[in-house]
């Protein structure tokens, strides 16, 4: 672990920030168990109550989850992800699609203007990986590959706030899509994304926005 002993003042907020950094950086990936309380106490050089309170705060915010008899696990990389996930559970499918359109259509439009050569190389690789995942017939792999492509499109818009907000929404959306698609890929679930990538490559913002919105019609 790369944790360090905090300053004496305001211990709990400092511990929260350190734990949050471990999670947001990917040092503790979503789905993994964080170190035990004794290990955290030893690494941070603080008391059990301080560690317990910091962990409790992150559990309350939806970033961590305590599992009886198993430990504490990472459930989201950011607090906003936990909030969005809870909101999506209560949302109608139509609402989720409308929010996704708001993100992805604008991201595609901006990406057509701002994409770099590196962005295009990454999009080509992601599109190829998506096709390969579909051909494999493994639903979980396809959902992951599809999500990776859309995330790269948003990043190609080069708007850090948009990317951060979309990442929080997209983690919750990904969980929802896994449930919707299930274990089997069916022909009607396939949507060709080559037109979207081609429009971004061509710098055609109107065509890119249209392609992004076409497969998100209600």
UniProtKB/TrEMBL annotation:
The keyword S-adenosyl-L-methionine does not apply. Keywords: DNA-binding, Transcription, Transcription regulation. PROSITE patterns: HTH_GNTR. GO terms for molecular function: DNA binding; DNA-binding transcription factor activity. Residues 9-77 form the HTH gntR-type domain. It holds the Pfam family GntR. Transmembrane segments: none annotated. This is GntR family transcriptional regulator. It comes from Rhizocola hellebori.
């Amino acid at each position: 672990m790369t944790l360090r002993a905090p300053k004496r003042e305001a211990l709990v907020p400092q511990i929260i920030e350190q734990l949050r950094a471990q999670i947001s950086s990917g040092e503790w990936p979503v789905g993994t168990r964080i170190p035990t309380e004794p290990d955290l106490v030893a690494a941070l050089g603080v008391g059990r109550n301080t560690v317990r309170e910091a962990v409790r705060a992150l559990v309350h915010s939806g970033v961590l989850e305590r599992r009886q008899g198993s430990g504490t696990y990472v459930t989201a990389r950011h607090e906003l992800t936990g909030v969005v996930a809870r909101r999506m559970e209560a949302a109608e499918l139509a609402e989720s699609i409308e929010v996704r359109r708001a993100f992805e259509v604008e991201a595609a439009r901006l990406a057509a203007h701002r994409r770099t050569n590196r962005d295009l190389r990454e999009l080509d690789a992601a599109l190829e990986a998506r096709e390969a995942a579909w051909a494999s017939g493994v639903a979980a792999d396809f959902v992951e590959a599809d999500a990776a492509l859309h995330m790269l499109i948003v990043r190609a818009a080069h708007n850090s706030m948009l990317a951060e907000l979309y990442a929080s929404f997209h983690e919750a959306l990904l969980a929802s899509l896994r449930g919707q698609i299930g274990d089997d890929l069916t022909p009607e679930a396939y949507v060709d994304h080559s037109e979207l990538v081609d429009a971004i490559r061509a710098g055609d913002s109107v065509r890119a926005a249209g392609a992004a919105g076409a497969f998100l019609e209600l």
